[in-house]
Amino acid sequence: MKGSCSAVSKLLEKYFDQEVTDEERSLVEAHLLDCHACQDVLRSVEKLRNLVRAPVEEAVQKEDFQWVWQKIERGIRLEERPTFWETLQSWLQIPPLFQRKVWIPAVATITIILLITIPLLFKKTPSYPSLSVVEYVESQTHNVMVYESENTKVTVIWLFEEPEKETPSS
Amino acid sequence: MRRTFLLFLLFILCFVSTSTALAEVQVRLRVIGASNDGQTIDPSLKDIYKELGSLFSFTSYRLFRDENLTLSPNQPVSISTLRRRLEVTLISLHKDIAELRIRVVREEKEILNTQVRLSPGRTVLIGGGPRQREGIIIYALYARF
């Protein structure tokens, strides 16, 4: 008889479940050929398993596992929810419309126009400390007089005519 | 996409035209004949008669023309009256000061060339020169901002 009963009996359940190694299987099968006691034990294990398997399988078939699936789906959804960082990244992503190259010349044009027009619109007024109204005056044919009155805010540019010489009264 | 581009172009055109419109100034020009013949004061000159009376010794003032000139930079506007031509050009416009170049031409001969700054409420009177049948010609200019 190959192997002792005590050693083989420990392997019988594993053998029945086909979980033994090839070496263990050879040992058990060689032992079972000669040992009626172990054959009985194996048979009783088989009977016991068959007794248990039938009601369990029946119960499994009758059981409604929908709540189990719901729980699993909930778990999957929780796992799939993006993190704060992922949400932020998605917000910062450039929309597909802006990824088109047609916006490059448009943005460039707007920038150029703004660069040209803003300085013109916000150009500072040059200061005229004395605020002389007449910047220059010239006449090749007449003598010219310039009179500025700050009270009445009137400036007179007068051309004299020889020989009459009209002059302002003041 | 094409519609967006057209709208964009329209926006640019509106913006440019608005900027251009901002560079214009309105100038009121009155051509006045002053003389000592009679004592006629044109009713249209009531607002300016006080200044005219304090500056000149004429007894009669008549309004020949009253024009509102829209001036754009470096675009001369001419007004011909009584054998004289007045040419006004906007040189620059800074907020509420308009720099104008004014030329007076008589019989194709320039008798005056000047550059003045017009500010709100400021009136520039240009007069004198050869006496004409209608008297002395006085140009009164002021800008509207």
Describe this structure in words.
Chain A has 170 residues and is mainly α. Chain A folds into two domains: 1-108; 133-170, no CATH class. Helix content of chain A is 56%, strand content 11%. Chain A has helices at residues 5-16, 22-34, 36-62, 66-80, 84-92, 103-121, and strands at residues 134-138, 143-149, 154-160. Chain A has a two-stranded antiparallel ribbon with strand order 2-3. The longest helix of chain A has 27 residues, at 36-62. Chain B is of the alpha+beta class and 145 residues long. Chain B has one domain (25-144). In chain B, 21% of the residues lie in helices and 51% in strands. Chain B contains two helices and eight strands. Chain B has helices spanning 2-22, 46-55; strands spanning 25-35, 60-71, 77-81, 84-94, 97-106, 109-118, 123-128, 136-144. Chain B has a four-stranded antiparallel sheet, with no helix packed on it. In chain B, strands 3-4-5-6 form a four-stranded antiparallel sheet, with no helix packed on it. Chain B is elongated, with a radius of gyration of 19 Å. In chain B, 30% of the residues are buried.
